[in-house]
Structures are given as C-alpha cells and as structure tokens.
Specification:
The structure holds two protein chains of two kinds. Chain A is an alpha/beta fold. Chain A contains twelve helices and twelve strands. Chain A is globular and about 65 Å long. Helix content of chain B is about 80%, strand content about 0%. Classes of the chains: A alpha/beta, B mainly alpha. The interface between A and B is medium-sized, with 31 and 22 residues. Iron/sulfur cluster binds next to loops of chain A.
Chain lengths: ~325, ~300
Amino acid sequence: MGEETTPLLTVDNLTIEIAGANVVDGVSFTVARGEVLALVGESGCGKSLTSYAMLGLLPPAARRIAGRILLEGTDLAAMSERQLRKARGKDISIIFQEPSASLDPLTTVGSQIASAFRQHHAVSGTEAFARARDMLVAVGIPDADHRLHQYPFELSGGMCQRIMIAIALICGPRVLVADEPTTALDVTIQAQILDLMKQLVATSGTSIVFITHDMGVVADIADHVAVMYAGRIAEIAPVRDLFARPAHPYTALLLASVPRLDITPKANLATIEGSVPFPNEFGYGCRFASRCPLATDRCRAEQPPLFEQGGGHRSACWHINRVHELKENAA
Amino acid sequence: MLRYAGSRLIQAAIAIFGVLTIVFIVMHLSGDPTLLLVPQGASTQQINELRHQLGFDQPLWVQYVNYLKDLGHLDFGMSVVQHVPAAEIVASRLPYTMMLAAGALMVAIGIGIPVGIIMATGRGGWLEKVLAAIVLTGQSVPTFLSGILLIAVFAVNLRWLPTSGVGDIRALIMPSIALGAISMSTFARMTRIAVLDELSKDYVRAGRARGLSLGAVVFRHVLRNASIPVITIAALEIGNLLAGAVIVETVFAWPGIGQLAIQSIQSRDFLVVQVIVLLISCVYVLTSLLADFVYAAVDPRIRMVR
Ligand SMILES: Nc1ncnc2c1ncn2[C@@H]1O[C@H](COP(=O)(O)OP(=O)(O)OP(=O)(O)O)[C@@H](O)[C@H]1O
Ligand code: SF4
Ligand SMILES: [Mg+2]
C-alpha cells in the first residue's frame, strides 16, 4: 500500500454546513494513484455530501465552510464554477446510486456517452460516437452497435450503471467517485459491476473513492477504508489493518456484525443499538458516545482527535486500548 | 407505434361520435324545438306545419338517424333566420376566430413558457417575484374586465390602438392579449412546475457532473422532458381559448364564431349554434389527438412500448 508516495487526491478538513449544523465536520483523507479508498458509514453520516463536495456539486441547502480538495496539488474547492466545469468529467468523475435515473430518458445512451466526450474534446459527432462505441465494449456491454441506439428504459439497471461508468471514464479522469454504485442493483449484478470497476482501475490507473455501507463490498474492492460516523472520520486504515485490528468501537461493532471476511458477507450496519444523532444533537464530545459501550464522561465532554496507530492507521477515540474488549465480547 | 396511433385514432373517432350524440340529445332535451322557432302568436296549424317541415314530428330515433345521415353528407341544415346553410355562416366567421386564437396562443405560449422557465431556473431572484406578480394578475383578472381595461387604457386614453372591430393587424393586439392572458398564466405555472420537477431529477446532477453548465443541462435535457406535461396543457388550452373567444369577441366587436354564437342564441338560430358546438367539440378532440402524437414524437417510451 503506497502510503509514502505523494497522494493523487487529498481531501483536507472538509466541513459542510446545513442549517447551522456541521453535517460533514473536518473530514480528511488521501487517495494514492490507482488506489481504491472506501468511505463507509450508516445512512445520513455525510458520505454523499462529501462526494458531491469533491466535484463542487453540493445541493443549494448545503455550504462548504472549510476544506480543500487537492487533486495533484490543485485545489478544486478554490476553483470558480467555470474552472470546475472544465475539471468535472475530465479530471474527476462521479457515478451515482440510481443509474437509470442518472440518464436522460429521452436521449439514446450512445449520444449521452458521445456528448460526455465532446464536452471536453473538440471532435466530430461521428468520432465521438466511435469513442462511445469503444467505451461500451470496454465496460463489457455486448452488441455495442445496437445498444448505442437504445434508450435508458430499454436497459436493465446493471446495464445503465455500465453506461454511467462509460460516461464517467470516457475522458480518462484521474479520480472516479462512486456513490453507492451497486446499492440499487441485485447481488449478482453488484458483483459484476465491482469486478468491472476493479478491472478498470487495474488497466487505467484511475483512483476510486468508493462509497458504500456494505462491509462485504469494502473487503472486496478497497485498499484503504475511511469509516465515517455522524459527519466525522471515526477511523481510517489500510483495509487489512482495519479488519484485523479495528481501533474504534464503531468499527469493531460494525465488523462484529460481519460473520466472515472471505465469504463476502452482507453486512448490516443497523445492527448496532441506538441510532445516529440528528445534526442538532451533535454536542461537544464524541458523536458516537450515545451508542458506545465504552463511553465515559470524557467522551461526552471532549471530541477525540484522530490518533496515529502507525502504518497510516488512525482512530478518533479516547479509549483505543479498550476496543479489543468489544471484539472479545462479540466472539 | 402503429398500435399506439391506431388506438388513439379509434379513441378520437369514438369521442367525436359521442360529441355528435350529446349535441343531439341536448338539442332535443329542452322539449320541442319548434316552439323556439315560431314567431309569437303563431297558430297551432302554423306550428304543426313548421314541425312537420323540420321533421320534429317523427320518432326521436328516426330524427337521430337522419341527423347522423345529414352530418355524414356534411349537411348541417339551414339557418332558420338567414335561410342560408348554417355551415356557410359559420365558415364565413371562422377565419376571424382562427386569427384571434392564433394571436392569443402566441401570447400564451410565447410569453407563458419562457416566463415559466425563468421562474423555475432563477429561483428566489427579484425577477421571479416580478414575473410571479404578472402571472397572478393574468390569472385572476376575468377576461371581460381585462378586455375593458385594455380598451380604456390603450384605445381611449393613449389612442395607440383601435377600440374594436376589424382593421389592420393592430386591431388584433388587444383581443389577443385579453384572450391569451389567462392561458399565459396557466402555461407559466405549468411550465414552472414541470421544469422544477425535472430539475430535481438525478440526470440533472449527472449532467453537471460531466461538465455541463446548469443552463446547458436545461436546454439539452430538462426542457424536452418538461415539455411532456406542458403539451397536455396546450391541448386543453386551445379548447379553452375558443370558449373564451365568446367573451372577447363580444367585448371587442370581433366578428368571429364566438360573437356569432351569442347572436345565434339570441335569435334562436339553433342550427347555427349546433354547428358551432360541434366545431368547438371537434377541435377539442382533434387537439388532444394531436397532443398524443406529439407525445409519441417526444418520448420514446410512448413510441416504442405498446
Ligand atoms: N439537500 C439537503 N437538504 C437538507 N439536508 C440534507 C441535504 N442533503 C443531505 N442532507 C443531510 O445531511 C446529512 C448527510 O447526508 P448524506 O446524503 O451525505 O448522507 P449519506 O451518508 O450519503 O447517507 P445515505 O447512506 O443514506 O446515502 C443527513 O443528515 C441529511 O439529512
Ligand atoms: S471516544 Fe469514547 S464514546 Fe467515542 S468511540 Fe471512543 S470510547 Fe466510544
Ligand atoms: Mg448517500
């Protein structure tokens, strides 16, 4: 795991406010070239907002109040909308959870892929279509010539996600953000899409920020993992390290609900008792304190910083040395 | 596509047949139409003669069959007042109403749709507030009142435009505005809702994610998707415009079929009224048929499935 190489993408202290609450609070992580970073966490913990912020696509209600998004040293967060438009789709791309809804229902998929290419390249329509065709082959869609002229409603969800991947990758971006790209798909299709993404990273060297709430998917695809809880990074580590030696109670409890790593379990993050606090109940201390079996007064009063564990493994917890108790209880 | 077209055509045919039947029933519902037609103080014998002459003494179903037969031959009967074919009278007035409807549609669509788009995309700005006020005014002032106000301001006070009647193209301006105003508000509101609805869809964010500006997404993708509900409104509004023409033509002394309808009702020229009612009903049916074909042209999901 190339922890020592200069990162391709650095998200530094990203903080997003909605209605006075920091729903994303001081989130930092790095992604090396050709690496997959998984961002995991329960529903509502700020994964999507983090991913939209990376492309400057926050919804109107949300505001980035701090943070840098460095892509090879260039701060995307400091760019004007005009500059961002040149970067989106070319330097950094994103795919979403609902592939069918992400396509214009009235336009053929071929012309949607081709127009994504023409957005950043001055080529003829014919040439862009030829590129679109090549891209369809690359994302494993059989009978590309026929598919090019089909409309989204004629394709399955899995096919549409392949189309979205083709659109996202046709300009050869350095980073692909994938916001729960397989959640809406059924299990076999999900595995196929994951295989496709792994293969594309291997051949193109694109880095991926892969958002999911499925620990099984994390084990399958990620090199590094950042676990988010209520808008903050709880723990970040190389994938093996995180599964072998979780250093945060939240991670430990998540993993305890995953039976075995090597059989691609379907993890359910909601098995931890209690629920995520609402942004207006965040308070001053550790945001996990209301559900944490190890919580003490200090936890409720003071927010834990990320403590370095060595080898790029960091955890935001005051009682890291007691986390193993949870593992033993679960076993 | 062929099945879709076929089923829509059959539906339209059934609707027109239904219209013919309803018009027949309504015309005979009020009792013996002969009594409406005879001058006051006519003798029973005169009444009976006229009744026989018009065929109203026959059984209802015979009258119905004859009615359909006549319509089949495009024979709409004679005006009992002017003693010329009723269809001819209506045809001579039709071009005026078509001109007026076209002018009103230009006002309604030409202003309403862009205003709706601006209101949807420029949310919260001062422009939206101004436009919202205009739309609200357009929709809440009744046609007869806006017509009279327009005459008072532009014809009587400013003397920019003729008060009423038919002259050059300028004579068409005020009636078109008066007739189109309410429609314009309807188009603006529906367009705004349709565009806002589309703007909330995932493909808009996906379009921006590949480098399109919001404006480019709106022009390339949103407007086409938003046009589908607006087409429905357009089909209904064309019918509503013809109904509104009755008032506007009266206020502006515009010699179209709306004015003719009022005159014919007053003079109990019921065959002329019948032609007008049939005409307006058929326009309703045909515009909604047209809308169905426009849907199919816009939306592959309609064109290709079923
Ligand atoms: N447009 C918005 N308006 C108001 N609040 C929002 C908006 N988008 C997100 N939020 C709030 O911000 C928080 C983080 O949302 P986000 O969508 O990033 O979560 P997530 O981790 O992606 O969840 P999920 O797994 O359900 O997709 C949530 O509390 C959510 O309610
Ligand atoms: S800081 Fe305290 S409450 Fe937070 S995770 Fe650690 S032990 Fe639990
Ligand atoms: Mg999300």
